[in-house]
Amino acid sequence: MSGAIDVAKMFGLHGKTAIVTGGTGGLGTAMTTALASAGADIISIEIHNDPGSERTAKIVTDCGRKIRKYECDVSNLKSIRATYQKIWSDGLSADILLNCAGIQRRSDAADFTDEDIDAVIDINVKATLVSCQEFAKKLIADGRPGKIINIASIISFIGGKNITPYAASKGGVMQVTKALSNEWAEKGIQVNSIHPGYFKTALTEQYSTDPKYKDFNNYLMSRVPAKRWGDPKDLSGAVIFLASAASDYVSGSGVIVDGGFMGM
User: What residues are labeled active site?
Assistant: First the structure.
C-alpha cells in the first residue's frame, strides 16, 4: 500500500442521499444533522404534524443540503411500503437508510397491555424490518450498493427493567440487522446497528434533574466510566462512519456508544 488516504473522501457523504425514519426526535435530529453535515441530502419519513419537522428541516438546509418530507404512520406496514413507492415514483433514489423511529413504554412486566406490546413491537421491530426491505429491494433492482443503519440500544444486550417489550424489540432490531447483513452484504449493502446507552433528551431529562430519580441518576453515574449522560451529538461519529465508505467492509455489526457502560 502506498500513498496517503483521502480521509475527507472516505468519511464524506457528498452526492449521497439518506432516507431517515424518526429523524426529528432527540437522537434522530442529531444523527440527521451529522449526515447532512457530512454532505448528504435527506429524505425524511415523518408522522403527520410532526412537532420536530420544521426544526430538522432548518438544520438540514442550514447545512446547505436538500430535504424532502414524506408523511407516514410507521406502525402501519402498508403505509411504509406505500411511502417508499411514492419516493421512488417521485424519481428519487437513496444510498443510505437510517432507521431511528422508535417508542418506549414502561410498566411492571406483568402489567403491560396488549396495546403497549403491539405498539412497541410494531414500530421498533416491524417498521424497521419493512423499511429495510423496501430500501434494499430498490438498491438490488438497480444494482447499486448502499448502507443501512438501524438504531438499537444497549438494552439489546442487558434487558433492563420495567421495559420488557422494548427489550424484546431492541434485541429484535439487533438480530434483524445480522440476518439482513447475511443476505445483502454480498450485494454491496452493509447493514449495521448503533446501540446508544443513556442519553440526555427531552424524554429522559427528568432522570438526571428530578430529585425523585436521584438514586437512579447516582447509580448510572457509578456505572458509566465517562461519568456523564450521553449528548445526542456523541452519536455523530458512529452514524457518519457507518454511512460512509469508511465502513465498506463492516456489516452485521453493532457500534456501542455508551460512555463505557457495557465495559463495566
Answer: 166
